[in-house]
Amino acid sequence: MAQDLYIGLMSGTSLDGIDGVLLDWGGTTPRLLASHSLPMPAALRTTLLALQASAADELHASALAANALSECYATVVHELLRQSALPASAIAAVGNHGQTIRHRPELGYTLQIGNHALLAELTGITVVGDFRSRDIAAGGQGAPLVPAFHQALFAMPGLDRAVVNIGGFANLSWLGADGSVSGWDTGPGNVLLDFWIQRSQGHTHDESGRWAASGKVITGLLEHWLADPYFRQAPPKSTGRDYFNPDWLLATPAIGTAAPEDVQATLSMLTARSIATELARKGRADTAYVCGGGALNQTLLGDLAKCLPDSRIATSAELGVDPQWVEAYAFAWLARNCLEQRPASLPAVTGARGPRILGAIWRA
User: Fold this and answer.
1) How far, CA to CA in Å, does 248 sit from each of 15, 163, 225, 290?
2) Of 30, 179, 197, 341, which has the fewest CB atoms closer than 10 Å, so is most exposed?
């Protein structure tokens, strides 16, 4: 009989890789038994990027990409089982977010690809996926999903805490001292930074923000970007590559004459300023805990500290969870809630008509 062991898988909008964790939920807090990160294969990354926009025969390309992704997901699962010396039969379920290729809640849909049936076949483990669509069907944004998990794991009575997840896009969770919770997408995280350095330098990402640190923030350019209507929109709200993408960035004439490193520095500050501005809707957090890939970007953390001078900036490692694994933890938690038939959505976050049980189940 399966124990209280769950695997969480996350491949985010940065498309840099697939993160997986194996957790034991038998105690009061989850215990990490194994973790693994698999770099996204270059050819698959190219395909997934192309799927962000309409193209010829995209249904065929999407189906093949979903199969290839599931083979990668299975590789991560098998590595977690190897590390922990556990059989597949010991795992209750795999919670798999899938890869977002469209997110249009204003049109009533979101799409995360991944062949969950194939993953169940390849691993012999029950798979829980498709976490966002039920919330959207109930009138919500379907995102962000993690504030409920952040509340469950990180909230502390009597303290106002902010948890800031910086992946391809950034979102925040406000964990109020009074037990309240809210959250929404703040805007771009690493997505534009990654695009700009790849276009300018040929690198997939700006290691620790060193290239951004070599440039200077262009104030006029920053203010132009911050004037975008998304940053003025009140929550609940969510966003993705459908909105903030290379076309959005390259539509700014000023970047054609600016030094590339100055554009990178300005993009870093855009991420930090947009997070700080959104956080100001709630007040001052005692501490802002950063997780996701952005927690490794020292320049971005420094920019965030400049924009939040009255809050301490730390990472989720201080709360006992490595920043890289927080979202994978969340999808293991969501899978557990689904199997146990517990609602895991927060209408105050997404705007849905009420709490819903999230996820669909593919039995092993």
Assistant:
1) 19, 27, 10, 26
2) 341
